[in-house]
Design goal:
The complex is a heterodimer. By secondary structure, chain A is mainly β. Chain A contains no helices and eleven strands. The N and C termini of chain B lie far apart (40 Å). The model of chain B has no long low-confidence stretch (mean pLDDT 92). In chain B, the strands form two sheets. In chain B, strands 2, 4, 5, 9, 10 and 11 form a six-stranded mixed beta sheet that branches. Chain B is 0% helix and 56% strand. Chain B is an all-beta fold. The chains are: A mainly beta, B mainly beta. At the A-B interface, β10 of A face β4 and β5 of B.
Amino acid sequence: SAVISQKPSRDICQRGTSLTIQCQVDSQVTMMFWYRQQPGQSLTLIATANQGSEATYESGFVIDKFPISRPNLTFSTLTVSNMSPEDSSIYLCSVELGQGVVEAFFGQGTRLTVV
Amino acid sequence: GEDVEQSLFLSVREGDSSVINCTYTDSSSTYLYWYKQEPGAGLQLLTYIFSNMDMKQDQRLTVLLNKKDKHLSLRIADTQTGDSAIYFCAERDYGQNFVFGPGTRLSVLP
Protein backbone atom coordinates (compact mmCIF):
# COMPACT_ATOMS: atom_id res chain seq x y z
CA SER A 1 0.00 0.00 0.00
CA ALA A 2 0.97 3.67 0.05
CA VAL A 3 0.65 6.40 2.65
CA ILE A 4 -0.52 9.65 1.10
CA SER A 5 -0.38 13.00 2.84
CA GLN A 6 -2.34 15.95 1.54
CA LYS A 7 -1.91 19.52 2.69
CA PRO A 8 -3.86 21.50 3.66
CA SER A 9 -6.63 19.27 4.97
CA ARG A 10 -9.07 22.15 4.69
CA ASP A 11 -9.12 25.82 3.83
CA ILE A 12 -11.50 28.72 3.45
CA CYS A 13 -10.48 31.06 0.65
CA GLN A 14 -11.67 34.33 -0.83
CA ARG A 15 -13.03 34.31 -4.35
CA GLY A 16 -10.51 35.35 -6.96
CA THR A 17 -7.55 33.89 -5.07
CA SER A 18 -5.65 30.66 -5.74
CA LEU A 19 -4.86 27.67 -3.52
CA THR A 20 -2.14 25.09 -4.03
CA ILE A 21 -2.74 21.62 -2.63
CA GLN A 22 0.19 19.30 -2.01
CA CYS A 23 0.24 15.52 -2.24
CA GLN A 24 3.20 13.59 -0.81
CA VAL A 25 3.54 9.80 -1.07
CA ASP A 26 5.82 7.68 1.10
CA SER A 27 7.12 5.68 -1.87
CA GLN A 28 7.73 6.16 -5.57
CA VAL A 29 4.57 5.61 -7.57
CA THR A 30 3.92 5.32 -11.25
CA MET A 31 0.63 7.16 -11.49
CA MET A 32 -0.76 10.14 -9.59
CA PHE A 33 -4.21 11.57 -10.13
CA TRP A 34 -6.32 14.46 -8.90
CA TYR A 35 -10.05 14.13 -8.30
CA ARG A 36 -12.80 16.55 -7.33
CA GLN A 37 -15.72 15.58 -5.13
CA GLN A 38 -18.39 18.25 -5.14
CA PRO A 39 -20.77 18.40 -2.16
CA GLY A 40 -22.91 15.27 -2.04
CA GLN A 41 -21.46 14.01 -5.31
CA SER A 42 -19.21 11.24 -6.47
CA LEU A 43 -15.61 11.61 -7.61
CA THR A 44 -14.69 13.21 -10.91
CA LEU A 45 -11.21 12.82 -12.35
CA ILE A 46 -9.57 16.19 -13.02
CA ALA A 47 -6.28 15.04 -14.47
CA THR A 48 -3.41 12.59 -14.45
CA ALA A 49 -0.22 14.14 -13.11
CA ASN A 50 2.69 13.10 -15.33
CA GLN A 51 6.22 13.18 -14.01
CA GLY A 52 8.37 15.51 -16.06
CA SER A 53 5.66 16.54 -18.51
CA GLU A 54 2.34 18.33 -18.69
CA ALA A 55 -0.63 16.78 -16.93
CA THR A 56 -3.34 15.04 -18.94
CA TYR A 57 -6.68 16.75 -18.31
CA GLU A 58 -10.13 15.25 -18.54
CA SER A 59 -12.93 16.85 -20.48
CA GLY A 60 -14.18 19.95 -18.73
CA PHE A 61 -10.93 20.72 -16.91
CA VAL A 62 -8.20 23.02 -18.24
CA ILE A 63 -4.63 23.76 -17.27
CA ASP A 64 -5.23 27.47 -16.73
CA LYS A 65 -7.79 26.74 -14.03
CA PHE A 66 -6.11 23.67 -12.48
CA PRO A 67 -2.36 23.80 -13.06
CA ILE A 68 -0.62 20.65 -11.87
CA SER A 69 3.00 19.94 -11.15
CA ARG A 70 4.76 16.63 -10.62
CA PRO A 71 8.48 17.18 -10.17
CA ASN A 72 9.26 13.62 -9.05
CA LEU A 73 7.71 10.21 -8.39
CA THR A 74 6.54 11.01 -4.85
CA PHE A 75 5.10 14.53 -5.01
CA SER A 76 2.48 16.51 -6.90
CA THR A 77 0.59 19.78 -6.51
CA LEU A 78 -2.78 20.94 -7.75
CA THR A 79 -3.58 24.63 -7.88
CA VAL A 80 -7.15 25.87 -7.99
CA SER A 81 -6.87 29.26 -9.68
CA ASN A 82 -9.10 32.32 -9.59
CA MET A 83 -11.51 30.55 -7.30
CA SER A 84 -15.26 31.01 -7.22
CA PRO A 85 -17.83 29.49 -4.83
CA GLU A 86 -18.47 26.77 -7.45
CA ASP A 87 -14.96 25.46 -6.75
CA SER A 88 -15.96 24.54 -3.20
CA SER A 89 -15.29 20.81 -3.12
CA ILE A 90 -13.11 18.12 -1.68
CA TYR A 91 -9.98 17.61 -3.79
CA LEU A 92 -8.37 14.19 -3.55
CA CYS A 93 -5.00 12.92 -4.62
CA SER A 94 -4.82 9.29 -5.73
CA VAL A 95 -1.90 7.03 -6.61
CA GLU A 96 -1.29 3.70 -8.26
CA LEU A 97 1.86 1.83 -7.45
CA GLY A 98 2.79 0.50 -10.85
CA GLN A 99 2.08 -1.76 -13.76
CA GLY A 100 -0.05 -4.75 -12.90
CA VAL A 101 -1.13 -3.29 -9.55
CA VAL A 102 -4.87 -2.82 -9.68
CA GLU A 103 -5.46 -0.94 -6.45
CA ALA A 104 -5.65 2.83 -6.24
CA PHE A 105 -5.03 4.63 -2.97
CA PHE A 106 -6.39 7.99 -1.91
CA GLY A 107 -5.26 10.81 0.32
CA GLN A 108 -7.56 12.13 3.01
CA GLY A 109 -8.64 15.01 0.79
CA THR A 110 -8.56 18.78 0.98
CA ARG A 111 -11.89 20.37 1.84
CA LEU A 112 -12.01 23.75 0.10
CA THR A 113 -14.64 26.38 0.80
CA VAL A 114 -14.66 29.51 -1.34
CA VAL A 115 -16.47 32.53 0.07
CA GLY B 1 -20.13 6.54 -21.77
CA GLU B 2 -19.74 4.23 -18.83
CA ASP B 3 -22.12 4.64 -15.94
CA VAL B 4 -22.26 3.25 -12.41
CA GLU B 5 -25.46 3.40 -10.38
CA GLN B 6 -26.09 2.89 -6.68
CA SER B 7 -28.96 3.52 -4.33
CA LEU B 8 -28.14 6.62 -2.32
CA PHE B 9 -29.19 5.58 1.20
CA LEU B 10 -29.37 2.45 3.33
CA SER B 11 -30.28 2.10 7.00
CA VAL B 12 -29.74 -1.06 9.01
CA ARG B 13 -29.83 -2.07 12.66
CA GLU B 14 -26.59 -2.80 14.45
CA GLY B 15 -25.84 -6.52 14.22
CA ASP B 16 -27.84 -7.02 11.03
CA SER B 17 -26.31 -7.60 7.60
CA SER B 18 -26.05 -4.74 5.11
CA VAL B 19 -26.26 -5.27 1.38
CA ILE B 20 -25.19 -2.42 -0.88
CA ASN B 21 -25.97 -2.84 -4.56
CA CYS B 22 -24.36 -1.42 -7.67
CA THR B 23 -25.03 -1.73 -11.40
CA TYR B 24 -22.69 -0.74 -14.19
CA THR B 25 -22.95 -0.45 -17.94
CA ASP B 26 -19.45 -1.11 -19.26
CA SER B 27 -19.32 -4.74 -20.35
CA SER B 28 -15.54 -4.55 -20.69
CA SER B 29 -15.04 -3.71 -17.01
CA THR B 30 -12.11 -5.75 -15.81
CA TYR B 31 -12.03 -4.72 -12.17
CA LEU B 32 -14.78 -3.71 -9.78
CA TYR B 33 -14.09 -2.03 -6.48
CA TRP B 34 -15.67 -1.00 -3.23
CA TYR B 35 -14.35 2.05 -1.41
CA LYS B 36 -15.43 3.43 1.97
CA GLN B 37 -15.45 7.12 2.85
CA GLU B 38 -15.89 8.10 6.47
CA PRO B 39 -16.89 11.67 7.35
CA GLY B 40 -14.08 14.12 6.64
CA ALA B 41 -11.81 11.43 5.28
CA GLY B 42 -10.54 10.23 1.92
CA LEU B 43 -11.44 6.95 0.27
CA GLN B 44 -10.36 3.67 1.78
CA LEU B 45 -10.12 0.66 -0.50
CA LEU B 46 -12.22 -2.13 1.01
CA THR B 47 -11.94 -4.79 -1.64
CA TYR B 48 -11.96 -5.42 -5.36
CA ILE B 49 -12.91 -8.28 -7.63
CA PHE B 50 -11.81 -9.36 -11.06
CA SER B 51 -14.55 -9.72 -13.62
CA ASN B 52 -13.81 -13.43 -14.05
CA MET B 53 -14.77 -14.06 -10.42
CA ASP B 54 -18.29 -14.25 -9.05
CA MET B 55 -17.57 -14.02 -5.35
CA LYS B 56 -14.91 -12.79 -2.98
CA GLN B 57 -14.98 -12.97 0.80
CA ASP B 58 -12.82 -11.07 3.24
CA GLN B 59 -13.75 -11.34 6.92
CA ARG B 60 -17.13 -9.59 7.30
CA LEU B 61 -17.22 -8.50 3.67
CA THR B 62 -18.65 -10.55 0.82
CA VAL B 63 -18.64 -9.27 -2.74
CA LEU B 64 -20.94 -10.89 -5.31
CA LEU B 65 -20.63 -10.21 -9.02
CA ASN B 66 -23.25 -11.11 -11.62
CA LYS B 67 -21.45 -10.26 -14.83
CA LYS B 68 -24.41 -11.16 -17.03
CA ASP B 69 -26.61 -8.60 -15.28
CA LYS B 70 -23.69 -6.20 -14.60
CA HIS B 71 -24.62 -6.21 -10.92
CA LEU B 72 -22.21 -5.98 -8.00
CA SER B 73 -23.08 -6.18 -4.33
CA LEU B 74 -21.25 -5.71 -1.04
CA ARG B 75 -22.53 -7.56 1.99
CA ILE B 76 -21.33 -6.50 5.43
CA ALA B 77 -22.07 -9.09 8.09
CA ASP B 78 -22.79 -8.07 11.69
CA THR B 79 -22.89 -4.38 10.80
CA GLN B 80 -21.44 -2.08 13.47
CA THR B 81 -21.80 1.65 14.09
CA GLY B 82 -18.24 2.06 12.82
CA ASP B 83 -19.44 0.86 9.43
CA SER B 84 -21.50 4.05 9.01
CA ALA B 85 -19.99 5.75 5.98
CA ILE B 86 -20.47 6.33 2.27
CA TYR B 87 -19.65 3.31 0.12
CA PHE B 88 -18.56 3.86 -3.47
CA CYS B 89 -18.73 1.26 -6.17
CA ALA B 90 -16.22 1.76 -9.01
CA GLU B 91 -15.30 -0.01 -12.18
CA ARG B 92 -12.58 0.18 -14.75
CA ASP B 93 -11.10 -1.63 -17.66
CA TYR B 94 -7.39 -2.47 -17.68
CA GLY B 95 -5.34 0.67 -18.18
CA GLN B 96 -8.37 2.93 -18.11
CA ASN B 97 -9.61 5.45 -15.57
CA PHE B 98 -11.96 4.68 -12.73
CA VAL B 99 -15.69 5.34 -13.04
CA PHE B 100 -17.27 5.86 -9.63
CA GLY B 101 -20.87 5.50 -8.61
CA PRO B 102 -22.65 8.21 -6.63
CA GLY B 103 -22.08 6.46 -3.32
CA THR B 104 -24.45 4.80 -0.85
CA ARG B 105 -24.72 6.41 2.56
CA LEU B 106 -24.99 3.60 5.12
CA SER B 107 -26.52 4.51 8.46
CA VAL B 108 -26.26 1.98 11.26
CA LEU B 109 -28.93 2.37 13.91
CA PRO B 110 -28.36 1.21 17.51
